[in-house]
Amino acid sequence: MSSKYLIPPLLAVTVLTGCGSDDESSPIDDNFLPVDETESAVPSVARQWNDVLLQGIRNDFARPTVHARNLFHTSAAMYDAWAAFSDVSSTYLLGKELLGSQCTYDDKISVENILTAREEAISYASYRLIQHRFKLSPDKDDTFEIADAFMQNLGYDIANESMDFSQGSAAALGNYIADCYIQYGFKDGSKEDILYSNIAYQPVNEPLQPELSGNPNISDMNRWQSLNLGTYIDQSGNEVDGAIEFLGPEWGQVAPFSLSEDDLTIHERDGFNYYVYHDPGMPPTYDGELAEQYKWNFALVSKWSSQLDPADGVLIDISPASQGNIDINTMPRNFVDMPQFYKEYAGGDIGKGYNLNPSTNEPYQPQMVPRGDYARVLAEFWADGPDSETPPGHWFVILNTVIEHADFERKFAGQGDELDALEFDVKAYFALGGAMHDSAITAWGIKGWYDYIRPVSSIRAMADLGQSTDDSLPSYHEDGIPLDDGLIELVTAEDPLAGNDGEHIGKIKVFAWKGPDYIQNPETDTAGVDWILAENWWPYQRPSFVTPPFAGYVSGHSTFSRAAAELMTELTGSAYFPGGMSGFEVNANEFLVFEQGPSVSMTLQWATYRDASDQCSLSRIWGGIHPPADDIPGRLMGEKIGKRAFSVANSYFKGER
């Protein structure tokens, strides 16, 4: 029996994150829908439709921007179906006009049972919108089978497509709300009508072929470079050829939820306006004033790759006793100060941990594990790539585990009386959906405009040039990679990497994860860490993925996660997870997908929502996906986005809009 569709306990979020799970069982499971009809046991209908939506996202292509929008629009539709019967709260789209899209609702319909009407309207709105948004999904049949089964379980007629709610039909109202969001979606700047395609952006670099050595075709070491993986099988089993396109470089033009025009800067390139909210400014460039910071950033990614070996003997405490508790005011506000924030040689950041669990008033118990296991687990747990619900969906999963915790009380902002499950859930999803949507617009607007390079491209390109540390040594080039004894060195004549004819003498070598060529069977093989030619450096990722199909700056993971953490702090009225700590159980030699491992069992632990967010950010450096320069700006703008989204959502709840 699959547990993939069960409502998860707090320590089993893995079944819904998609991380480390290769469950290929049927999408219909007898236990997907609760059979216990008691109020305390049955999650709200909004919660269950959120689970259906998350599974639809897992069955679709890995598109964080598109799915942040899907999460928001579906959550907003559910909220409108709930608020349609409220005497206090304002609707978002129902009864309003947004971007010239009218959703008329002059007179509230009269119903005998408001709860029943709300559940029916929410269900039809969710069902119709999911049908529309996933109709081109590669695994749409699985998604629709789940949605159909849920509707039938609820006793609703899926053939009822009426939008005439004048006689008080909650089903018709739900269908109407879904249609309003569908029509609005064609006007919101996402270009849904042309399958979210780019209309102006063009990459400046020729694609990188990572299976070949080096990066010989790059022309601009500051700009994003596509990948050409040859012929490969994508997440849905489809055969794909050719270079990968940039996903969402024009997403900054999508209509936001709570972003303000005061936060907006419009840049122009090639006759196209790039909308950038919370503009962080130019990242370090190899040929600019911050050239040394450029080199330090990308060299650090290679250095942290050396920490992915659980056999190196390094043990660290991964509990809240030592991890987390970073004051956002201590985060660097400029690139020059970043080396003081990150532990260049030990890995991690300046987080000092906590003395006591505020819920139990007891110390957090240390948990010593191999650093190489911890770093690899983080890289995979937070990856949120193929087969996952993507980063914005991951935070919905985390929110759901919080709500289901035995110690959690559904008090809005931690105050007043407990709300009923449906009211709390629709408000929570609406607020979090708005924050995730705005995070995607902000991060991808910046990605599209600054078009910044990824580590695999930069590390290989710098190494092709040589070393920039000592002009008296071989292979000197001012734009090359900086040497660092024991981590980044020159190949000598006596070196095992010199080659049969000495062809590699004078090249750059790095002490790093050896890459997918050393893994024949991920269930039994571990690539390990050793000296490799820098021209063959790989991020700790699957060979069919390598690095995300969009620019690095700023980190979407950092932006999404910090925004979600701030919003959940506001929503729950506490910075801490219920009980003062949340966690995720990892079993030895069962969790990792990229290679065998981890070598020991462990529990990922977070005291606060911000700690989970900060851990996510670090995971992207260990995974070889982002340098620090991508990370911190994402965290800082995520804080603003999360707080603003909560404030705007709350104004709807209070009927102020």
UniProtKB/TrEMBL annotation:
The EC number(s) attached to this protein equal: 1.11.1.-
Keywords (A to Z) from UniProt: Oxidoreductase, Peroxidase
The DUF6851 domain is annotated at: 76-207
| Superkingdom of the organism of origin | Bacteria
Q: Which InterPro entries match?
A: Br/Cl_peroxidase_C (IPR016119), DUF6851 (IPR049283), PAP2/HPO_sf (IPR036938), V-haloperoxidase (IPR052559)
Pfam families membership = DUF6851
What GO molecular functions are on record for this protein?
Answer: peroxidase activity
Q: Which residues form a coiled coil?
A: none
Name of this chain's protein: Vanadium-dependent haloperoxidase
